[in-house]
Amino acid sequence: MQHGGNYFSFKHNSIIEPGFNTSKKFLSWGKIKSKKVLPLFNINNLPYKKLYRSNSNKIFVYVTLMKSKRNKSYNNYEKMINEHRLMSSSLDGLKHKDKKNLIIRLHFTDQKFMRNKILKEIFFKKNKYQIDYSTLPIKEVYKKSKLIIHGDDGTGILETLSLNIPSLFLMEDLKLITKSCKKDYLKLKKGKILFFSPNEAGTSYFTDSLILICDHNEHGSLGLIFNRPLEMKLKELFKGMKIDLSSGQAKSADLVKSTVLVAVTIIIAMIAGYYLAPSLGIWGRVIAGLICVVGWYILAQTTNSAFKLDGNVFKAVIAVVIASIVSAAMGAYVWAGIGEMGASAWTIVFPGWAMGDIVASILGLGVLFSLTGEMKKRGLSTY
Fold first, then answer.
1. 277 confidence band (pLDDT: 50, 70, 90)
2. 340 torsion bin: left (phi>0), alpha (psi -120 to 50), beta (else)
3. What's the CA gap between 212 and 230, in Å, rounded?
4. 81-85, 267-271, 312-316, 366-370, range with greatest mean pLDDT
5. Triad 154, 159, 163: Cα angle to 5°
6. Minimal CA–CA distance to 66: which of 56, 76, 55?
7. What domains are defined for the chain?
8. pLDDT at 288
9. For a surface tag, which of 57, 87, 155, 177 has the fewest beta carbons within 10 Å of its beta carbon?
10. Is the pLDDT of residue 206 over 70?
């Protein structure tokens, strides 16, 4: 059965694996996706089921084992030293009144020479703390603690959390944690139970981070971290950076407004062309075309459409008019000869054809420019 921490969450647990791999059934402290596992509870806490805690201000610190052995597939000695340094720098940042109530609890299996070395060179370098050499019964520790700080993710943090004792633990990083368990550790970080740095305010994000610096100036820096989870939605991030997500995109109100305006423009242009054509001839049709331009101008000014009137638009209008006239002239020429319409092709077919092309093309310009504007934003070719 499980008898401590790091089961199923640690990548290099050579002590635990043989017991699990050689058993037919395995009793665990929690749920694990395995048919051989029978999930129970933290059996170490059975003696403390009824635990009456006092109103003490004591802060107990469970530090990592102090041993010099290098007997793992990773550098466990370096990991131990780094964990002690992380704990020491974290304790240095505490308020003076909290330091007075702080007790460092050492493990009874610590090597004496390593213990003296680490206490002297790391923990007592700036401050002097009370030391408990595991002489105080664990039940008394639980009763008298306002807070328990653990130096790693071992057995201790599992016991105090399950007893509902205010607890937190420190870790250098999650390099040695299995992929399937990392999300659970990140939940603990979000809940302010797991910390990676002494002044935890997100600074651990920059440890072993892959960062692309996008901008750096006198006001600060802006970068993208590629190998850390983002604990907020992009919408919230952009809102905090005062980036308007609606910029360059049509809102539903704009879409309705645009549709109505286009429809009204077409109707007015058709009515104008029908009634003005007999009395004003070609000029009546020109006026109908200009109405389309006015309609698009109103559309550009009253919506967030990417279509804006500028020099390029007017060049496009001139090109549309020339192309429409040439196209209509070619059609009228064919109808005059092959269609045997004679001169009437130039007075009937040509004006109507030209005006129809001009009106349709000018109305299409808004859509065309909106599309090209959006394509440029996305880095696409507009050829």
1. low
2. left
3. 15
4. 81-85
5. 155
6. 76
7. 51-208 (3.40.50), 252-377 (no CATH)
8. 67
9. 57
10. no
Helical segments of the chain, H only = 16-21, 76-92, 96-100, 112-118, 138-144, 155-162, 179-190, 234-240, 252-280, 282-302, 311-337, 344, 350-377
Task: Please check whether residue 64 is in contact with residue 152, taking contact to mean a CB–CB distance below 8 angstroms.
Answer: yes
Angle, CA of 10, 92 and 208, to the nearest 5°: 40
In the block, tokens 């092309």 appear at 357
pLDDT, tens digit, 9 for 90 and up, residues 94-107: 888 888 899 999 98
* Nearest of 363, 340, 341 to residue 262 by alpha carbon: 363
Give the pLDDT score at 164.
87
Running DSSP on this structure, what letter comes out for residue 17? H
Amino acid at 222: L
Contact 373, 248 (CB under 8 A): yes
Residue in the structure block whose two tokens are 């006015």:
294
Q: What is the identity of the amino acid at 331?
A: G
- CA–CA distance, 291 with 382 (Å, rounded to integer): 28
pLDDT score at 57: 85
Q: Which two tokens stand for residue 48?
A: 């403390």
Residue type, 56: S
Which residues partner with 60 through β-bridges?
103, 148
What mean pLDDT do residues 160-179 have? 89
| Number of residues in the chain | 383
Contact residues for 68 (Cβ-Cβ < 8 A; gap 6+): 77, 111, 113, 114
Cβ neighbours, 10 Å, residue 100: 12
